[in-house]
Amino acid sequence: MQFTINDIIKTAELRTRLLSGSGLERPVRWAHVCELDDPTEWLGEGDLLMTTGLAIPSTPEAQRCYLERLVSAELAGLMIGEHMQAPDNLQALCETADTLNFPILLTHYGVPFAAVTHAIVEANRQQDFERRNLITQIYENARLGLQGLGLSRLISRLEKDTRATLSLLESNSLEPWLPSLKRLEVDQLILLQHKRSKTPRQQWIIQRYRLNESRQLMLMEIPSQRNCLLVANSDGLLDYSLLHHVVAVLGIELERLQVEHERQLRLGSELLDDLLQHRLSPRLLEQRLAQFDITLEQAQLAVTSLANDPDFSDILLRRGIMPLCRVQGEELIFLVEQSQAIELQHQLGGPMGLSNILEHPERATEALREARLAHSCATPEAPFQQYAHSDLTPWQPRNLDEARQVFQQVLGRLAEHDVQQGSQLLMSLRTFLEHNRSWLGAAQQLHIHKQTLVYRIRRIEAITGRSLSNTEDVAILWFALRAGSLASINLNAPRL
């Protein structure tokens, strides 16, 4: 326990009493004699100013200013030697102390100030002994964390060690780092939001804010995690050095969670790839899916764009979501239940398409195409689309068979030409239209000369019987390309 003003008063041999003010529970870190007009140039937070009274002004206004400076510097208190050199009239000093709840002590003439300092030193030695024991306990909790104690239980144990309330937050939103962790109290949240609004780009690193006379908040960043903030709330002064050890332990636990999360994502990605490539027997697939608490009778494939949120792994970790997912090109593919898919779309924010129920492994490839078709129908107003209820526009294929038929009817001959000749006319057509028929832009994308592209476009027009100078033909070719994409036809090397 920290040595306080009240401990000084209760120590009989120091023969000290309270003259005025309050705040007896203020912790005292050090005591020092200073007879300067402005002792705050040398003393600061938690220090006890000891004086014979030589520097205390004699006029009421000067006494008020003198004490206000001590309060502003957050000194622990003022100790005056009795019957020494203090002014006879200390009324203004005492009234200001009562108003500002600042303790003024009077020490017997026969007690040397050195005795007070020795008492504080001895108390600090005991405190250091207790701190070492606490640090040992903190790292014992770190060991338990590595054995799977869990972040919530680890924080609870650290709260007991530090005698403080600990909150782990996302520093931008001030939301709990994980859903299972507790939120800040309303008054604390309002205080931090107000502080952040005044400096939007504030780096928290180490910040301290006073809630009231006895309670304070201390903010420390977790160095191993981006945008992760520890908020400690305690009575009295918080121990900086102890909190640094707490930050280190929490950093270790968060790293462990990150590694475990990435391991689970890797296992899920491998399993999803095995499912899509039909590498597993139904029995083995069922056993591996059971490890993720999902069955084929409930599972659906969901597709969203990776471009919407490249940091999806951090979002999944901090929202406590552990789906089977796989990155494939610019797509994120999930194997989920419908309720989980809705939550995923809400957290990731981008459009998402959901297939029908998988039911059996042989339908995996077809379900992926269904999810892609539903994804193509998503809009900002309706970002979540399910294949069975997709709001298709009139010119879009209504199912995968229809998508294949549209592609075959419009671009089938061109795809056959590419297969037979090993050419890249389909890819050239798609690139040309994606660049809004810009000869230069498309040629640069394809890494060919403009005249080579002109030749290819003429061949495309000849094979398809459609002109890229005609708006109607351009629209038909574009929708056919989109149909091929929905049907998962590789436009770089089509196989019909």
What does this structure look like?
The structure is a single chain. With 496 residues, the protein is α/β, with parallel strands linked by helices. The chain is 48% helix and 15% strand. It is built from 16 helices and 14 strands. The chain has helices at residues 5-10, 60-72, 91-100, 113-146, 151-162, 186-198, 240-276, 282-290, 312-318, 338-348, 364-376, 400-421, 425-434, 439-446, 450-464, 471-486, and strands spanning 16-20, 30-33, 47-51, 77-81, 104-107, 165-170, 206-210, 215-221, 228-235, 300-305, 324-328, 331-336, 352-354, 384-386. The strands form three sheets. The protein has a five-stranded mixed β-sheet. A five-stranded mixed β-sheet has the order 11-12-10-13-14. The radius of gyration is 36 Å and the shape is elongated. 32% of the residues are buried.
Quick structural overview:
The chain has four domains: 5-120, Udp-n-acetylmuramoylalanyl-d-glutamate--2,6- Diaminopimelate Ligase, Chain: A, domain 1; 148-254, Beta-Lactamase (2-Layer Sandwich), CATH 3.30.450.30; 280-389, Alpha-Beta Plaits (2-Layer Sandwich); 400-486, Orthogonal Bundle (Arc Repressor Mutant, subunit A). The protein is 48% helix and 15% strand. The protein has helices at residues 5-10, 60-72, 91-100, 113-146, 151-162, 186-198, 240-276, 282-290, 312-318, 338-348, 364-376, 400-421, 425-434, 439-446, 450-464, 471-486; strands at 16-20, 30-33, 47-51, 77-81, 104-107, 165-170, 206-210, 215-221, 228-235, 300-305, 324-328, 331-336, 352-354, 384-386.
